Request: fold
Amino acid sequence: MIILIVIIIVCFSLIGYKFSSYYINRKKFFSALVLLLSNLETDVVFSRDKLSNILKKNIEICASKDLCALCQNIILTLESKQMITEKIFYDVKILKPDEQKLLYKFFSSLGRYDVAAQSKEIKTYQATIDGYNIQAKEECKKYSGLFIKLGIIVGILVCLLII
Amino acid sequence: MLQEILSEPLANIINYKIAISNLSEIRLRTNKPIIVYIKGQPYYLCDKGLCCDINNAIFCTQDMISDIVYKASDYSIYSVNEQIRNGFITMSNGVRIGLCGNVVEENGQVKTITNWTSINIRIPHQIKNMSLCAFDDIVDETGLKNALIVSPPGAGKTTFLRDFLYQLSEHNYCLNISVVDERGEIAGGTDSKLDIGNFCDVISFCSKKVGFMQCIRSMNPGLIITDEIGNKDDAECLIDAMNCGVKVMATAHASSIEELRRKEFFKNLPPEYFQRYVLLSKREGPGTYEGTYNEKFSKIVKW
Reply:
């Protein structure tokens, strides 16, 4: 009986964690994206390396698996000499439509200007993405713990009902 | 070589319906037919390959041009903007794309070129033994002579230089050669299959002034090779090299020796700076050898 109760609570906690991971991943994604933008700007201005090389370097230090997947898709698109399309978001399920639209616009505008204009363009997007980052952090703080707690409570409730 | 920058249909036509070894240039102009140069002769590009009838020709759009420029820059315009400012992009395989469009100027300096309206894709070639006709005139028992390769644009000066470098290596002329490759055309880039022999150190995409100084300071060259001498500053670089005891081989635009002698940069050079002039033309196709001239501008007659 005790084992069954433990299993039920653990299962519901995991479901709660699954819901909360959405917010945790969003927080990681936007934090990593802010860092990526900052590195991108530095590399564009100083090393003037090709976009795909800059992204490759940043994947190695990227803390978000969603952002890694997004960068990987962009690199593959660039290396196959294709235009960036919305297909780059294929593996990224944590973005809201308006965020996806903005990021699509941002990534498809990359590499189209000279150094000064490109740097300015990155800074413009940086301001909006900073806003998303703050929002994602607040949502994570608010909801991630809540879903885990809810999972545990629902698990306990189910156990009580069974008993 | 061209599939990296051209759209699939265009690349297929060029790769499968045209002998790419004979292709020297592709010209794309907004809303105009695409023109390809085969052995120096222009043809319209059509679905079946080449044609002379404009009605069958494939027309170019501005999107087509932008797409090629973006692809040539690996979707990183900022990384090649220094080249764009000078009016071209050189790809790592040595293909050079000349650009025309709206020039953005700031304080009298070109900042960039945008809204590209015309491009000229030049495909580098390696024509083995092309320079042999003049090789013995430039390199004889007394050593290597300062030489200038003279021809109108598109007549094979750079191809001649490239083969000359290869021939020096083939003839085991073991000499440290510095190639000041302002536009990355002589040696191509990292992916280039162009063979410039075993003794060359290449400094690319820098001005002649910087390139010459860097090479003389750090590479201990016996010979410096550079493309397209055309102004007073270039002439100063040549004089500096001479004062450092370094031999120079260069190219210049002119269709005859008389035309060359009227050029401003040439007047700034000491008399008899160049001991050999090799004249090329397009008379029988690009790279037609017209003769070698000595420091007194007399044609060297071969028996």
